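Section 5.1 Outputs to date
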Amino acid sequence: MARNIFSRLHLCGALVTQSPLHVGGHGEDVDTDLPLARDGAGQLYVPGTSLAGALRELAERLFGESVIDELWGYQRDDRGHASFVVVDDAVIEDSDTVVVEVRDHVGIDREYGSAAEHIKYDRAILPRGTKLKLHITVEIAQQEMRHQALAMLDALKLALEAGEVRLGAAKTRGLGHVRLIDAMLTEQIFGTRQGILATLRQANGAVVSQADIDAARQAYLVQKRPRLTITIQWKPVGPLMVKAGFDGIAADTMPLVSGCDGQVSLVLPGSSIKGAFRSQAERIVRTVRGETGPKWLGGLGRQKFLDAVGVELVNDLFGQRGERVAADDKRSWLPGLGALGVIDCFGQHRLTVMQWQAIQAASDDGQLRQALSAAGLQPWSQAYHVAIDRWLGSAAESMLYSVLEPHRTEWEPLTLEVNLQRLPENLRLPAIALLLLVIRDLANGRLPLGFATHRGMGTVQVTSLEVQGHDLDEALAGLCDIRLQDGRLTDLPSNLNSAWQQWVTQNQEVPA
């Protein structure tokens, strides 16, 4: 049965990926473990269900569940109604020209420091700079709903323009950061003769006036969303890279690059940064608790890895695998998705696709040097490595290989985002203290990043730190004053240290 519609509100624009994006699709792909979603014609797209899920979750945080249920629909027992919000599938602009990348992922064994067994996979991603068409429609059944719907769409528009929304998979590990551009909020009115005539003249209706938007903002106040953004300015001391998932010709080991606004650039994936941060956080927590190492619960392979990374407080900050709990389980909080998100970090030097292809295709040292010079990468060098035969003391047979090492590269700042709503209130200050301890270790050269960190690569120098707070209460406001000076964090709020000490005292390991 059709329902009466007084008007329709439309939010249209383009979502531009600020980091690579993965929205998974169904079916097998011989090229990757986790393929991208494709429509019936085989074209890349982002399903409206993926967009709607992310947008509804944000809307609930902005306005509360009761207000959002009225617009987005709900079903409880025999009560409920369909959604008034329609989110179209997001078509990818110039889909035929988008170069899909395949990125490798691996877990690190906490005992040996090598790749963990059965934790190796790859996923297909859309590169940074990909554009998606966004179209959201809200049907207004009664004129009284108009302010409510207008306030929600305006708040979503502002959040999308500020880059607060993450889409798809691995959104706390570098992927899914999008930003809305060219946004327009329009309305079609069907309840009046003038409105119908205006709709016939303009397909999506007239632009909503600023006066109407201001009135809606006053009627429905947006709830606070406490969060932190930590920006770390840094530079590598020596060569720093993440290993690509393929071998080169002139150089065996190649650095990982990724698409960036139509060009390519070195990239330090958010998953690599977050993995290094998490490992250091686990060491810190185990040290202060008096543990001698990871606790093995008898599992093997994949389960052994999952057991080792299950550390209190670290799970709340960095996340953990989802758990199924019984109906009578009294726990009110399961970490699931972590509070900490890390964005992919790109090198500032951009190369054309043809320049990078020439570097990959170089067949000898001379051609490689010419290709590097043509791309403006003269400081890069090809380093040769060989293993030593333990019996003869000479070069081991078939153990000679080369690495294309990026030297004197400049990088974008590291950007960390902490969604404080995902942390229980009693763990917010201890979790932030733990993260700051990890950042302190990074600034003191104890936490290398990337590939071959035990063989001279990956050392970084932190030059400055900035903490920005959003909607913080009085207990957290002092975090914005934290600064980094000579490798030390200064101007720390007094309640931060006391909260950390209290957590450590309450969670000391009890001797057997």
